[in-house]
Amino acid sequence: MATVPVYCICRLPYDVTQFMIECDACKDWFHGSCVGVDEDDAPDIDIYHCPNCEKTHGKSTLKKKKNWSKHDTGQSTDIKAVQNGSQVFIKELRSRTFPSADDVVVKLSGSQLTMDYLEENGFNEPILAQKKDGLGLSMPAPTFYISDVENYVGPDVGVDVVDVTKQTDSKMKLKEFVDYYYSTNRKKVLNVINLEFSDTRMNSIVESPQIVRRLSWVENYWPDDALLGKPKVTKYCLICVKDSYTDFHIECGGASVWYHVLKGEKIFFLIKPTSANLSLYERWRSSSNHSEMFFADQVDKCYKCTLKQGQTLFIPSGWINAILTPVDCLAFSGHFVHNLSVEMQMRAYEIEKRLKVKTLTPFPNFETACWYVGRHLLERFKGLHKANKQPAPYLIHGAKIINGAFRAWTKKQALLEHEDELPENMKPSQLIKDLAKEIRLSESFCIYLNHFCLDCNKIYLLYYLFTIPR
Question: Which Gene Ontology biological process is one annotated for this entry (predicted)?
Fold first, then answer.
């Protein structure tokens, strides 16, 4: 059994509060404070070499300076910038070529997408299921359409509608949007991306994939009788007309997300959540004119993935993505946070807090979910240790990150900001102490097991040396 990962020249585990950078040579991660790299300077580094690798691979190199705006011609500064989502932008986007997502997307059948598969291989790359068979996914019949959504949800329900050209949102009644959808003369490109329907009649005919229900913190660990209700993030209906566009974003709370296209088609532009890309994203998103800059131009690679009718896509935590709808489309989706991606979820959550960006698809009370998960992991670790068993390494690693966040959230100077998300009847200090104890027990066993394996290898080597005839 592997030990909890340690990094940097200090050989300490990941700490959500500290910036880290990856060495392009040895692939280890280093605290910026340990190797003298400031977080604000990291996006300008093209190739980074740690102090040890500098000796053999040379010094780190910086990126060539370039104007990120795709609108700058070097001529007049009076040229009006193109707004992301405008007709001119969509036309340009359709004409561009991107690396195929086949390089990063894993294709699995529904029956292959299991807990055993994810625990063995991780959930770090997007997964595409070309058919819903075996996913445990329930969808309406193919004859289901927008008017049926209105019937099941209710015509007077208020929905957030995005004006794609302006990238602004407003409120409409669902009936008003359906009338717009069926009109023959659409003067605007409008879409609905956050119609959460778990409290409506449509809930009974749509079921999220079984693997999502197995993984979800909200589904599994949030008490039904909690004073704070469960976050409404599990079932969204997306009604998007042709040329709808959602700009680059990271899901709130670092959530993973699933999409299923019932009718039409969607195109996803996917960017890996490397440390450099996340820093670039944060800088881009905090810029006052980010809506006039195509973020994909700032990164090395942006992959294009087309999701066709009847297909399901799972996007892991932290992946930066934008979505284009090339034809009218009806789709369903849901957000979920889980134990396989704790480190990335926490990193994305920290970025979200720093950016203070309002979104139509928030993940409310993310910290509350973490507290419930911490309590669950404590009881799970206790049960395993009592049975002389050990938690999986990814659970130990996730528990350390969560417990580190608990310590940060309960510091005297930070408590006021975080105490509203502390669940009722929770004793944070005791939980932090007890969880730390169980983590230490697991790590001690891992160290013992590693030493035992090394001793076994030595014994085998001696046996080989002294028993094999020369």
Answer: brain development
